[in-house]
UniProtKB/TrEMBL annotation:
Protein name in the entry: Thymidylate kinase
Source species of the chain: Apostasia shenzhenica
Domain Thymidylate kinase-like intervals: 14-172
GO cellular component terms, A-Z: cytosol; mitochondrion; nucleus
Residues of the full protein shown: 40 to 217 of 217
Domain of life (superkingdom): Eukaryota
GO MF term set: ATP binding; dTMP kinase activity; nucleoside diphosphate kinase activity
Gene Ontology terms: biological process: dTDP biosynthetic process; dTTP biosynthetic process; dUDP biosynthetic process
EC number: 2.7.4.9
């Protein structure tokens, strides 16, 4: 009673290239867990609803110029500003299914040529996921899926570089789905 729960929620992160099907799989997973009667919420990064998220969104959608390091830190700050809420939700037993997290942050920035260790640094201290699911898809395959939109990064050559960076980050604890 009194809102006390013994069981922490799980932090489940889905990662992958643009158009790999993350968003669809996230909502299917959320529905599945809801069906089991578990408290669960769908989250995504970037969270475009915050002030930082709005700067990120305009960077992604128009041609606002920001240097790569600054953008990297904004994406990271967008996770930091949600950290405390995330921690509270998990503590209170809510499972979070998150569409993109630090691995997107590191892979997309490293794909631009930033040093990968530098990219990882601001992610230190964020809540570590319990499960990382990587939806593996060839960039060529992803590009065929209805074509890319107009956002920055949605280009075949760049997505290939991102895929390469994900492979560097991937370890044996990840669940890789084809
Ligand atoms: P969506 O299309 O999923 O909204 O992502 N990105 C995302 C980064 O470069 N760094 C990050 O930390 C995150 C979370 C991936 C928008 C784009 O933003 C990229 C695609």
């Amino acid at each position: 009673g009194n809102g006390h729960v013994d069981k922490r929620g799980a932090l489940i992160v889905l990662e992958g290239l643009d158009r790999c099907g993350k968003t669809t799989q996230c909502s299917r997973l959320v529905s599945f867990l809801e069906g089991k009667g578990l408290p669960v919420e769908a989250w995504r990064f970037p969270d475009r609803s915050t002030n930082i998220g709005k700067i990120i969104s305009s960077y992604l959608t128009d041609n606002s110029q920001l240097d790569d390091q600054t953008v990297h830190l904004l994406f990271s700050a967008n996770r930091w500003e949600k950290r405390w809420l995330m921690e509270n939700k998990l503590r209170n037993g809510t499972t979070l299914v998150v569409d993109r997290y630090s691995y997107s942050g590191v892979s997309f920035s490293a794909a631009k040529g930033l040093d990968i260790e530098w990219c990882k640094a601001p992610e230190q201290g964020l809540i570590a996921p319990d499960i990382v699911v990587y939806l593996d898809i060839f960039p060529e395959e992803a590009a065929k899926r209805g074509g890319y939109g107009i956002e920055r990064y949605e280009q075949l050559e760049f997505q290939g570089k991102v895929a390469h960076c994900y492979k560097i980050l991937c370890n044996s604890s990840w669940k890789v789905l084809f």
